[in-house]
Amino acid sequence: MMRRLSRALRPRRDDAGITLIEMLIAMGLMSIVMAVATSGMVQVFRVNSATETQAVGQSQLNIATQRLTEQVRYASWVGNAYPVAEARYINFALPQAKVVGGVPSQTVTLYCVRLRVHLDAQPANGRDGRGILQSNKWEQGKPTTTATGWRTLASNIDTAYPTGEPFEFKPRSSTPVFAGSTTTTANADLLRIRLTVRLARAGSKEDMVASTDTTYTAANTITASTETVTNSKKCETENPT
């Protein structure tokens, strides 16, 4: 009787737990599963980060081009692009209602707009070779008292200009217009702006790139009077503060 009771109280081999080898095998399999899962999560993060970064750059360019569209469309004159050191400039003239006390008046005044792309002393992503697109606007003939000052339209511009010079002007009746354009002859002055934005991507040494290549039609150059054109050309020699 005692012998049977002793046997019954002994632990069965099935209840003895797992061996060291079984534990090592289980840990190895778990490590493989975790590595695969982690790799997938990192890849998803990188894709999302790249998509968001590129969207930010493209949105920045879209806002800048939209602002310029509203201005260049009504320009009465567009000048030739020119470099100053590493910067690039271009001017155009814009007839607008004169603003008095913050309210547009009935008087139409000629305004000068100067665009420039130049190196940023403190680029947002801390990398060299980045520039900013800026504009300055003033009443023609009063550059020192009416200038708005340089306002930034876009930053992190690639100043290596991988797609070509940022500003290109074509006067009306030019043939051909621009390389790759379906239009053979310009009916009005045209301003082409090509910009490439490079933004740093989190967790990567590679930049995300967004580009724009937009041709603006200065419709008012078709009907601009000789006097307006003469006054507009003075924008090139005026130096706002």
UniProtKB/TrEMBL annotation:
Keywords: Membrane, Transmembrane, Transmembrane helix
Residue ranges of the TM segments: 20-42
Highest taxon of the lineage: Bacteria
InterPro entries, sorted: N_methyl_site (IPR012902)
Entry keyword Transmembrane: yes
Protein known as: Prepilin-type N-terminal cleavage/methylation domain-containing protein
Organism, scientific name: Krasilnikovia cinnamomea
Lineage: Bacteria, Bacillati, Actinomycetota, Actinomycetes, Micromonosporales
